[in-house]
Write a structure and sequence with these properties.
The structure holds two protein chains of two kinds. Chain A has 14 helices and 31 strands. By secondary structure, chain A is of the alpha+beta class. Chain A has an eight-stranded antiparallel sheet with strand order 10-9-14-7-8-13-11-12, with helices on one face. Chain A has a six-stranded mixed sheet with strand order 2-3-1-4-5-6, with helices on both faces. In chain A, helix 7 crosses helix 8 (346-360). Chain A is globular. By secondary structure, chain B is α/β, with parallel strands linked by helices. Chain B has two domains: 4-253, TIM Barrel (Alpha-Beta Barrel), CATH 3.20.20.70; 303-363, no CATH class. In chain B, 39% of the residues lie in helices and 23% in strands. Chain B has helices at 30-44, 68-81, 101-110, 124-130, 136-148, 167-179, 197-203, 212-228, 247-253, 280-289, 302-313, 327-335, 356-363, and strands at residues 4-10, 53-60, 84-94, 114-120, 154-160, 184-189, 232-235, 238-240, 258-261, 266-269, 272-276, 294-299, 320-321, 339-342, 345-348. In chain B, the strands form three sheets. Chain B has a nine-stranded mixed sheet, with helices on both faces. A three-stranded antiparallel sheet of chain B has the order 10-11-12, with no helix packed on it. Chain B has a three-stranded antiparallel sheet with strand order 13-15-14. In chain B, helix 1 (30-44) packs parallel to helix 2 (68-81), helix 1 (30-44) crosses helix 10 (280-289) and helix 2 packs parallel to helix 3 (101-110). The chains are: A alpha+beta, B alpha/beta. At the A-B interface, helix 13 of A face strand 1, helix 8, helix 9, strand 10 and helix 11 of B.
């Protein structure tokens, strides 16, 4: 395909503004999928379909004959909307020249609309605004345009009006992609330079690298070199996404596709690396991706201690497909060997856990999530600590700093009071307000990261009847009066249950965790005493009485199978329990601290 | 051929009780006759025909909901297909509200030699709440009628830990049952089973059930009162005069084979357990069409058989053969005070009886 007729573009939007549906319509319009069309075509993971969200970016190559009679090759990259998956979005943007910015006509510009548009502008992408859901009764196209112009500062008079659901304006969108977005600029004659923007691990083919060819071309048999490591491989296959992987003869300048090259080691296809040819190599690699900084950390342990190596293998493979995941080995007195993993948010954490369990058949325990603290010791040393159990004793700490975020909250005027109250409760510091359109307010706050991770978003939604939206980016560290709260079972501290909390919330949270544990820990053979403590001071206590009986009253010929299955179920339940000293804890016990704040 | 236990399931009841999850139906009319005819046909065509009956047990449902003629026509078919061994125990369950001297007389003359009465309680309000059709006075009357008809082996079923039941009321129940001096007592702690009316009530918090501690106390009272009365506590929930254990049920607990006839009846021969079609309509049409009768079939692997052997055997006072069981688990359970070891057999201690399932789990 002539380079001038290639368009690489993505769709960016606030969550639920209709990205995936629009992607479906575009794919249908281009006839890429025949026969049984389904919903969320680019969301291939079960988790995505079950939850109705996009977690992974996904690419598809489309052929489109424009109104001018010419054929275009379109590479569409669908991206996630949730703030936890911003890193996916940023990588997708780097493979594109243009972006469709979707704004829901009834909701208007939201916090992630602004954040994602900002990223696209930083990458110098041509942004085509699309006002979606214009057929809804509450659609207000003029207000949406006004908000785009005020809040994002791009012209919106020529925004495409559409309804993905009703199939309105799809052709206009495709025409805008072909006519308004630029073609890729790379040099076909130059040595190969291709950016790895994503990858996944295939047990037969090894790492499959998803690439955007910036200069030159690549075909099977080529000897390629990874510019960061210098490792060389011979290309097995190249191909494109339709959206399933389809082999082709060559990937040319400007195209998006995949390569396999028997890259068996996990690190062979590193996201952000540049692929070139072993001979006639490019001199300079492409700008890679900034390393992403996790927002929240937790310990990840196999329920079965013997599965540690399996867990390592699984995390390494998952990392290929989830570049924002970080991990380092750690040990816990209670849980044995595991990993401290960093995530971009709790949804990300939950999804990663679910993928590890589903895709790798593991049974995992997650410890209470925590942010990364800067701990100043009395001896003058300063350390990053994200694992509460690694905190020095209080008398060795001179100061603790915690990470903050710069938050942007967009809300209708009438809820400003409620939002400000919520932010205050969460130790927020007000910065300023802006008014992108009459009746809509953008509030800027500095908030401790720890206070927004858990239920802030839900609380924000419920106190604004669902109208407010929220985005944030990591800010600086600030000193804070934090304490470590320990949980004791039968008098012994369980390190995996410890967490860091602001002193003013300590009593309430400690009491909450004790109550929650009392709910989720089943009665055992012996009494279980549960205590929450700061240092040696007990702030809350309760106990679980031992069970007095476990007996099947009746067991005759017709009952045997069912009663046996009951025992088998109890046995399986026990296997999923973690023995901590004399106490058996179910997996959910370790997330009690989360439940308390919800 | 080795003798085998034979179970016959009669699925009909005058009404469905709130706690009951057995395969039972409050149906009347021609389906009853059709079911009896189909059961006879099933027995006559049995692949196990010819194996002598070690014991025969008619359960339900309410076997005595059927006429004595119907009951005996089924029993005749069983006896023809499975010649009873000498001294064969032949039991029928009976509801005190559905029997009288005439019926018991006919049943005794027809070959039944043991009666198991579903008394459940001697307190009128409790019986009403359970959904039983009989009153307390009918229980004593039924026991005496059975005796008069020549049954020298009579059992009473009672339940405890009923909604709202106090220790005092349970004690009254026990005393009333013991006063009848039956040969056998089955005392069951009420279990809330899914798919019952009680289950729904329980989920709504509408059953005021005695807690664990009270259940334990009630059970211990039953143990000591039956012991004083000279009954042998030979299985978790069963008590008998010397040598008057339920031989049929011993077969289950000893993990022996059994055949099941009738709608929903369960049998296990070899390592295969089958369950017949449950609804009388389905059962009758399958028998008449000569189609397969079972709706569930389970091939028991070694692990399942082993768990069953442990789970059932440990319930008996005669104990469980320790061969092949984990010595470490045995010593831990002994230390815990739940298990006694005598030569090669394992027995639950009185404390261990409350934790029968825990013990089975630890051993299997």
């Amino acid at each position: 395909m002539d380079q001038s007729h290639i368009r690489n573009f993505c769709i960016i939007a606030h969550i639920d503004h209709g990205k995936s549906t629009l992607a479906d319509r575009i794919i249908e319009k281009c006839g890429a999928i025949r026969g049984t069309a389904q919903e969320q075509m680019l969301d291939s993971m079960d988790i995505e379909r079950e939850r109705g969200i996009t977690i992974k970016m996904a690419a598809v190559r489309l052929d489109y004959r424009a109104k001018n009679g010419q054929e275009y090759q379109l590479n569409l990259i669908d991206t996630p909307g949730h703030v936890d998956f911003t890193y996916e979005v940023s990588r997708a943007l780097a493979a594109c020249e243009g972006a469709l910015l979707i704004v829901d006509a009834s909701q208007g510009v939201e916090a992630q609309t602004i954040a994602n548009a900002g990223m696209a502008m930083n990458q110098n992408l041509e942004i085509v605004p699309v006002i979606n859901k214009i057929d809804l009764p509450h659609a207000d196209v003029e207000r949406a345009k006004e908000e785009i112009e005020h809040a994002i500062v791009i012209p919106a008079h020529d925004a495409v009006l559409a309804s993905a659901k009703a199939g309105i304006g799809i052709e206009d969108i495709l025409e805008a992609v072909c006519m308004r977005m630029p073609s890729p600029t790379g040099n076909h004659a130059a040595p190969l330079r291709a950016l790895i923007y994503d990858s996944h691990f295939d047990s037969y083919q090894g790492a499959v690298a998803y690439i955007r060819v910036v200069d030159g071309s690549v075909r099977p048999g080529d000897k390629i070199k990874m510019m960061s490591s210098g490792a060389t491989f011979v290309v097995d296959e190249v191909g494109v996404f339709k959206p399933q992987l389809v082999r082709t003869e060559e990937l040319q300048t400007g195209e998006v596709g995949f390569i396999t090259a028997a890259m068996k080691a996990i690190g062979d296809a590193k996201v952000g690396d540049t692929v070139t040819l072993a001979e006639n190599a490019a001199k300079e690699p492409l700008p890679g991706y900034r390393d992403v900084k996790p927002m929240v950390y937790c310990g990840l342990y196999p329920t079965d201690g013997d599965a540690y190596e399996d867990l390592r293998d699984a995390i390494e493979k998952l990392k290929l497909n989830d570049a924002s995941l970080t991990f380092t080995p750690e040990t816990s007195a209670a849980l044995g060997f595991g990993f401290r993993c960093g995530f971009l948010g709790l949804l990300h954490m939950e999804i990663a856990r679910e993928r590890l369990e589903r895709e790798f058949g593991l049974d995992l325990i997650l410890t209470a999530p925590s942010v990364d603290f800067l701990v100043h010791a009395t001896n003058g040393s300063i350390e990053h600590i994200s694992n509460p159990s690694e905190f020095p004793s209080p008398n060795e700490i001179s100061m603790i700093e915690e990470p903050t975020v710069s938050a942007t909250i967009m809300t209708p005027q009438e809820y400003v009071g409620a939002v400000m109250t919520l932010c205050q409760e969460r130790r927020g510091v007000y910065l300023r307000s802006e008014y992108p359109s009459p009746n809509r307010v953008m509030l800027y706050y500095t908030l401790p990261l720890a206070e927004i991770l858990l239920d802030f978003f839900d609380k924000l939604k419920s106190s604004t009847r669902g109208y407010a939206s929220f985005d944030y980016e990591l800010g600086d560290y600030q000193g804070s009066d934090l304490v470590k709260l320990d949980i004791l079972l039968n008098g012994d501290i369980v390190d995996a249950l410890s967490f860091i909390v602001h002193r003013s919330f300590a009593y309430q949270r400690g009491k909450g965790v004790v109550e929650q544990l009392r709910k989720v820990v089943p009665r055992q053979q012996y009494e279980v005493r549960i205590q929450a403590a700061i240092g040696s001071k007990i702030i809350s206590a309760d106990s679980i009485k031992p069970f007095r009986k476990n007996v099947i009253a009746k067991c005759y010929g017709g009952d045997v199978t069912r009663k046996r299955k009951l025992l088998e179920k109890q046995k399986a339940g026990k296997k999923r329990m973690k023995q901590i000293g004399s106490v058996e804890l179910p997996q959910e016990a370790f997330l009690s601290v989360l439940k308390v704040m919800e | 051929m080795t003798p085998i236990a034979v179970y016959v399931h009669t699925p009909f009841c005058p009404s469905k009780c709130g706690y009951c999850d057995f395969n039972s139906y409050a149906m009347t009319g021609s389906i009853v006759d059709e079911t009896v005819a189909a059961m006879i046909k099933e027995i006559q065509n049995s692949p196990w025909r010819g194996r002598p009956a070690k014991t025969i047990f008619f359960g339900g449902g309410t076997p005595t909901f059927l006429t004595s003629d119907q009951l005996l026509s089924i029993l005749d078919a069983v006896v023809e297909a499975h010649p009873p061994i000498e001294d064969c125990e032949i039991t029928s369950e009976a509801n005190p509200g559905t029997v009288d001297a005439t019926k018991f007389g006919a049943m005794r003359a027809g070959g039944f030699n043991r009666i198991s009465l579903g008394a459940q309680s001697f307190v009128p309000e409790e019986l009403t709440r359970l959904g039983r059709i009989h009153g307390p006075s009918e229980i004593g009357r039924a026991v005496h009628a059975a005796r008069d008809a020549g049954f020298d082996n009579v059992n009473i079923d009672l339940m405890f830990a009923l909604p709202g039941q106090s220790m005092r009321v349970w004690e009254q129940n026990l005393d009333a049952a013991l006063a009848l001096k039956t040969d056998h007592l089955s005392l069951y702690c009420l279990t809330i089973e899914p798919n019952t009316r009680y289950y729904k009530l329980h989920l709504k918090g509408m059953l005021d059930l005695p807690d664990d501690d009270q259940q334990v106390e009630m059970y211990e009272m039953a143990c000591s009162k039956t012991a004083e009365a000279g009954l042998d506590h030979y299985e978790i929930s069963n008590f008998s005069k010397p040598n008057m254990q339920s031989r049929h049920n011993l077969c289950y607990w000893r993990c022996e084979e059994y055949i099941g006839y009738g709608p929903g009846a369960v049998g296990r021969v070899g390592a295969t357990r089958t369950t017949n079609l449950k609804h009388p309509n389905l059962y009758v049409s399958a028998v008449n069409a000569g189609e397969k009768l079972w709706c569930e079939r389970e091939a028991l692997d070694d692990e399942a058989l082993r768990l069953e052997r442990v789970m059932l055997g440990i319930r008996l006072s005669e104990g469980l053969d320790r061969t092949g069981l984990d010595a470490q688990a045995i010593s831990a359970l002994t230390k815990r005070g739940w298990l006694n070891v005598s030569s090669d057999r394992l027995h639950l201690t009185p404390e261990g009886k409350h934790f029968c399932s825990e013990v089975a789990l630890a051993l299997a």
